[in-house]
């Protein structure tokens, strides 16, 4: 008998590889799996530390290795949490409600409403008539033996042919009779082709169908539309999707979505936008409808509006690759578009706020009151008619020298010289009196009179030394 090969021989791994130094330097995940299997088998001995080192190295090289899989028992009902049990419970209740409605329909089918509902009877259990089957098996057809010449003399071939024809006719009549009986007992439910004809003729009343029937027929039309769409027969697909929506528009989310895609393929972007909006009205978080709405806006020429719609897609799915790629392309085309995670602030004018607020009256000061009175007087003077004088107004000459006060006064030397000349000539008393008055005035207001030979326009003007 051949000896059983060890794992070292089967995997062709030398025993020198079962070492800490080699395991730390190994870079092959497949070889590490084999080494770990050899260590776990215990054929070469039990080395817990080496085993642990090999597991850590394999976890680094190949974290999803099958050696890390652990067999566990199947989870029971008690192991599930309330959040995990809730969808199962809801689904169970939904199935029970549908069964209850179908049972009601079966009860109504037995009553007088069979014509309107046109449903077959519910299938019930029955018994197989085993006796008839046994009799048929016990009576096989008899054949004439080849050596029985007496029976062959009595055999009539024409008679046997007629008998076989009659048997065949009898079987056909039995089948037709059974078909007539079954047709009279119940009518089958309307098929998709029958409802299609009734749609075309306009005789179908959808009010006769229950919600379950509407869902069923609507789904059948939608699936037929999908088949046309895969065959790229978009016009026929549109017809089927439209009929699916007409049967049950309240739950036609998928039909609206598919018809919007069909319109997009036919380059009818406005109709595609309308169907996508209708789908979002029924299911606001439908990612396909949001992406299709943004794509339809972009193709229709509303590129900046499509940018906002792509941002809404990211609100539902942050890592959507289609939306992120479209946003990057739009930002390259339009540099003024904000980044995806930008926040907008509302800017309000203060002037608008000030207009809306009532003006508060502040207490007036005395200066403001005086200014207001002067403004009122000036307005009245402007409004009052002015009288035009015939005589021309006299021009007033202003002497700017009177407005200046010098730091020092220069004494007039001409006066003293004149006095000396007067003493020398000794004029009369009148001249002396005039000179005395001039001296008194000069002492009060000293003047500097220019000589007479100087030709200037400023005669008899007071001159002041420059400071």
Summary keywords:
single chain; 467 residues; mainly alpha; Serine Threonine Protein Phosphatase 5, Tetratricopeptide repeat; 60% helix; 0% strand
Brief summary of the model shown:
This protein has 467 residues and is mainly α.
Please state the average pLDDT score.
Answer: 73
**In percent terms, what proportion of residues is strand?**
under 5%
So how many helices? Answer: 21
The poorly predicted ranges are: 359-363, 386-390
**Rg from alpha-carbon coordinates:** 60 Å
* Second CATH tier, the architecture of the domain at 263-338: Alpha Horseshoe
Specify the biggest β-sheet: none
CATH topology of the domain at 263-338: Serine Threonine Protein Phosphatase 5, Tetratricopeptide repeat
Biased composition (Basic and acidic residues): 106-116, 132-145, 346-391, 421-446
InterPro entries: CiliaryAsmbly_MitoImport, TPR-like_helical_dom_sf, TPR_rpt
GO molecular function: heat shock protein binding
Organism: Glossina fuscipes
Provide a descriptive summary of the structure in words.
Among the domains are: 7-68, no CATH class; 192-251; 263-338, Serine Threonine Protein Phosphatase 5, Tetratricopeptide repeat (Alpha Horseshoe), CATH 1.25.40.10. It is 60% helix and 0% strand. It has 21 helices and no strands. Helix 13 (253-265) runs parallel beside helix 15. The protein is elongated, with a radius of gyration of 60 Å. The termini are far apart. 13% of the residues are buried.
């Amino acid at each position: 008998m051949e000896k059983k090969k060890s794992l070292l021989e089967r995997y062709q791994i030398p025993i020198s590889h079962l070492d800490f130094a080699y395991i730390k330097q190994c870079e092959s995940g497949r070889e590490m799996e084999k080494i770990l299997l050899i260590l776990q088998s215990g054929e070469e001995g039990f080395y817990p530390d080496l085993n642990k080192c090999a597991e850590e190295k394999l976890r680094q090289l190949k974290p999803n290795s099958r050696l890390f899989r652990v067999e566990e028992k199947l989870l029971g009902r008690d192991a599930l949490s309330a959040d995990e049990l809730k969808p199962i419970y809801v689904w169970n209740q939904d199935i029970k409600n549908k069964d209850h409605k179908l049972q009601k329909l079966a009860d109504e089918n037995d009553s007088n409403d069979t014509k309107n509902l046109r449903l077959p009877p519910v299938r019930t259990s029955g018994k197989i008539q085993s006796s008839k089957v046994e009799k048929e098996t016990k009576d096989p057809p008899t054949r004439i033996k080849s050596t029985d010449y007496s029976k062959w003399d009595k055999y009539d071939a024409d008679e046997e042919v007629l008998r076989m024809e009659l048997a065949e006719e009898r079987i056909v009549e039995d089948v037709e009779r059974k078909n007539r009986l079954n047709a009279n007992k119940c009518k089958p439910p309307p098929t998709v082709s029958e409802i299609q004809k009734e749609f075309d003729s306009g005789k179908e009343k959808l009010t006769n169908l229950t919600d379950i029937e509407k869902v069923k027929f609507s789904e059948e039309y939608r699936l037929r539309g999908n088949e046309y769409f895969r065959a790229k027969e978009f016009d026929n697909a549109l017809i089927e999707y439209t009929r699916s929506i007409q049967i049950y528009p309240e739950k036609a989310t998928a039909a609206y979505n598919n018809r919007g895609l069909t319109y997009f393929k036919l380059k009818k972007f406005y109709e595609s936008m309308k169907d996508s909006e209708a789908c979002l009205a029924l299911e606001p978080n439908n990612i396909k409808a949001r992406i299709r709405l943004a794509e339809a806006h972009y193709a229709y020429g509303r590129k900046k509006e499509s940018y906002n719609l792509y941002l809404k897609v990211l609100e539902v799915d942050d890592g959507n690759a289609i939306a992120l790629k479209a946003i990057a392309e739009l930002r390259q085309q339009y540099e003024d578009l904000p980044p995806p995670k930008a926040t907008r602030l509302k800017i309000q004018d203060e002037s608008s706020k000030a207009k809306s607020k009532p003006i508060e009256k502040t207490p007036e000061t005395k200066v403001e009151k005086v200014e207001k009175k002067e403004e009122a007087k000036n307005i009245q003077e402007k409004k009052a008619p002015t009288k035009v004088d015939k005589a021309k107004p006299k021009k007033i000459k202003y002497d700017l020298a009177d407005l200046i006060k010098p730091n020092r006064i220069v004494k007039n030397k001409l006066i003293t010289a004149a006095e000396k000349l007067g003493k020398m000539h000794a004029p009369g008393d009148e001249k002396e009196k005039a000179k005395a008055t001039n001296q008194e005035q000069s002492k009060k207001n000293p003047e500097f009179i220019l000589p007479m030979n100087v030709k200037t326009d400023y005669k008899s003007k007071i001159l002041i030394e420059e400071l």
